[in-house]
Task: inverse folding
């Protein structure tokens, strides 16, 4: 075997080893599935957490792996919601077809805008992505005959999932549908980030000049990653439209992009479960704090985020381990 072939074989073996599932991953998804049985009264919250996690997963691919800063990722989320909603109001009742259309529309917008996003500095990217979201918001507001305008898109008729599971008021179908979609997309994204393409994205994020010097097509990879992230965000938007059967301008508002950034700050950027764990924590905090203090829940979430940034996620994670070691050290032999 030649040196080149031996090197390629070692690289393939290493990629295969790194892509293996960790036992904690099985536990995470088992707990996610068990939540459907343990919390039958919180189906709507489970659905909301799942689609928020999917949205955060899409942003993590763009920001955490490709290193593309964006303040307008909600544009793809809102576009997906409107495409799925408009399709449902015009007779396309199959939710999977509506989701496919939303995914395709968001991917097309992502591919088109990636040509602008890749130009200039990080500040330019922030302004361009923010501008795209603002333009889409105004377009949706100015086309009430198509989008419902400020009143929102109503009259959606979403059929049963796979022709078997009709959407119910309790939200059971919505929760199962959202979790299943999240898991299916997660498998795809996991395969992407553990592939040679995914590792090349890490190289580009770490040092674009060095990555280009060893032959990596930096712009092409960033464009593909941005497009994939946009498509996944469109799927998350379609989930929101189909599970709530209502779409409003709120889906394109700035806070939609800001909230998903907060989710990644809480869970961590650059690892697949960061957005998922962040979505669980963020939505649970939002749900509980809104119940305790309906007018000031945003203040308390902001306080938690400030504490997280000032103290540091690593230090917070080290405290329980240090406490456990101290308690275990005091136990009699």
Result:
């Amino acid at each position: 075997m030649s040196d080149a072939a031996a090197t390629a074989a070692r690289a393939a073996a290493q990629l295969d080893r790194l892509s293996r599932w960790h036992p904690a991953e099985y536990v995470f998804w088992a707990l996610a599935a068990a939540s459907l049985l343990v919390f039958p009264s919180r189906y709507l919250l489970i659905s909301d957490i799942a689609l928020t996690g999917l949205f955060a997963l899409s942003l993590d691919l763009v920001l955490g792996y490709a290193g593309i800063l964006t303040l307008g990722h909600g544009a793809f989320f809102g576009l997906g919601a409107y495409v799925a909603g408009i399709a449902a109001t015009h007779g396309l009742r199959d939710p999977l077809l509506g989701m496919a259309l939303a995914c395709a529309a968001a991917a097309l917008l992502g591919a088109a805008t990636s040509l602008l996003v890749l130009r200039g500095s990080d500040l330019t990217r922030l302004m361009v992505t923010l501008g795209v979201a603002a333009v889409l918001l105004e377009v949706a507001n100015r086309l009430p005959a198509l989008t419902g305008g400020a009143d929102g898109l109503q009259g959606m008729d979403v059929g049963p999932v796979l022709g078997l599971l009709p959407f119910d008021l309790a939200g059971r179908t919505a929760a199962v549908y959202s979790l299943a979609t999240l898991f299916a997309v997660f498998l795809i994204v996991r395969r992407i980030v553990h592939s040679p393409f995914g590792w090349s994205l890490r190289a580009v994020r770490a040092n674009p000049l060095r990555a280009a010097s060893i032959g990596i097509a930096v712009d092409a990879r960033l464009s593909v990653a941005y497009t994939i992230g946009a498509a996944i965000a469109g799927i998350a938007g379609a989930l929101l439209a189909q599970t709530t059967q209502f779409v409003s301008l709120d889906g394109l508002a700035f806070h939609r992009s800001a909230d998903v950034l907060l989710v990644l700050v809480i869970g961590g950027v650059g690892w697949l479960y960061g957005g998922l764990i962040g979505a669980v924590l963020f939505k649970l905090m939002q749900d509980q704090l809104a119940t305790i203090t309906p007018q000031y829940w945003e203040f308390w979430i902001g306080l938690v985020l400030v504490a997280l940034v000032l103290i540091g996620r690593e230090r917070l994670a080290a405290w329980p381990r240090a406490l456990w070691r101290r308690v275990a050290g005091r136990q009699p032999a």
The CA atoms of residues 78 and 167 lie 21 Å apart.
